[in-house]
Amino acid sequence: MKKLLGAYRQNGEEHLILQENGKVFVQEGNASEFENSVLLESRNEYVKDVLSKEEISGNDIFDFRYGPVTSGIGEAGIFHLYTYGERILSVKIDTSYKRRGLDERMINSDINDALKLSEEICGNFAISHSTAFSRAVENALKIKVTRDVELLRSIALELERIYNHLYVISRLAQAASQQVLASHLMGLFEDSLVTNKIFSDSRYLMNFNAIGDVLKIPSRKELKDVSDRVKKIENIFSKLYENSMSSGNYIDRLHLTATLDAKEAELIGLTGPSLRACGVKEDLRAYDEMYPEIEITSDEEGDSLSRMEVRAGEIFESLKFVRKTIDDLNLADETTSPNSIGSGEGIGWCESPSGTIVYHVEIENSKIKDVYVSTPSVFGMSAIAHSIVGNIFTDFPFVVESFGVNFSDAAR
Amino acid sequence: MKWWPMIGISKVLTENKKYATKTDVKRMKIFKRSLHIYTIDVGNSNILNFEMRALQTPKYNVHRFGMYFAASPRHADLLIVLGKPTKKMIAPLLEMVNQIPEPFGVMLLKGCESSGIDPDELKIPNVVTSVNGCLDPSEILAILLKISGRID
User: Fold this and answer.
1) Model confidence over A316-346: pLDDT tens digits?
2) Residue B88 pLDDT
3) How does pLDDT run across A148-173, given as a tens digit for each residue?
4) Is B8–A105 a contact, with Cβ atoms under 8 angstroms apart?
5) Could you give the angle at the alpha carbon of B128 between the alpha carbons of B125 and B133, nearest 5°?
6) Domain count within chain B
7) How far apart are CA A27 and CA A33, in angstroms?
8) Which ranges in A329-406 belong to alpha helices (H)?
9) Is residue B45 part of a domain?
10) Does B9 touch chain A (CB under 8 A)?
11) Looking at residue B47, which CATH number applies to its domain?
């Protein structure tokens, strides 16, 4: 099914950014024909359940405003929970407190400055954003990227996936009061941030990408160190995961919590591990030649447990990919200095830890004339708003954390 | 059901290093043995939020210094402001400062992003330090130790 990820106007015509069967493309059309088009208009202010048209109201129903400052939500955002006590009847998510207008600031700025702004949108998806942005610019200016650069970017993308997925699973464990598991996972999370620093000189893989290039080529010693650390993370995580799956207390909290079926997920525009947990085997990496042996992890039930299992499976897959790619890596000594001057229009995308990130850019004399950013957290938040209905407030952290969304990513 | 593997018991997981910082801070020695911290995200790119989570991992083991993360500002001694505020977050931030019981301190971690309003301009009371740049958890811990008077 075609999923609407974004829409922009060009020469009076509406262009839609769509994803179908693991491929992203642009075509002319009318966004309002898609159920989730309302998200594209409102995402700077709020995100709601696009599949429910009825307004919830009644004598005892009140708006429980959770945020923007609460220890239950790590970021500056508000969940408006409509409830009569414990059961959640409807949710509206206010993203405006985190709106920094970074995409608007990119307009008229230099390409390299805009690249930095793309990293700022969401620090824990920094390499995903910068890769999607760089690919859009490279596409627009017809810059050819070497295989070495693509491989190094792929390793960085997988390192980002590993630490984000570890973080999500540790948050789920914490929500289920599995403190020992959560502490071990947070230890691994910190280890993976240290690994990122060895690979890219930044714990969050920032300032690693450049247009048509990467700014750091790790030395052989650093690559060996990364490979060894990844192996260690794999060993510990596999033991922890095996044990966690035999803990009834933990599994019970996740099982059948916030269930979403494949059709609903696709109508909302969900991508990434949350979509794959609904049984849709769709991953942009499947068509990327840097990933010749990737096995797409998916699950059937579409609940919080499935989303956690898909993320765990992807951690193993990413760890394997990083080790194998480093082992096979034979970097050429020569470097390229791409010429990022000119004008053009292009689209770039990548599979971030929580779904598809797409950038559409128009460049005029090496400055950004227009940019459209599609982020996965917008659709993830709408999926939260839809799947949480009927669950009780006690399940709230499992629903929110299992989708791995960020207010910074949604609000830009 | 299996027991959790006790990976941490036989090994020293805690980072074994000396902490030092040149950051200027106003010391709050009253909290030397017990410092309760509350953090507020005012619009950072999520890096500082993640670094605060990383600081709470067993590797840094902040409890050995009597540092705890509170779930409410009413239980806190130190408010850490993460990032530069967006316009809409200024009011919640100032309200948060109102809610902390005396005596308290405010630590401004501005991060390395270009967006937002400089929190120094908000004239927040009891600011004990204001730091620019992306700090890693070791650096943040060193500043906290200096604030509580545990290191010079």
Assistant:
1) 999 999 999 998 888 775 566 667 678 889 9
2) 92
3) 899 999 999 999 999 999 999 999 99
4) no
5) 110
6) 1
7) 13
8) 376-387, 396-402
9) yes
10) no
11) 3.40.50.12280
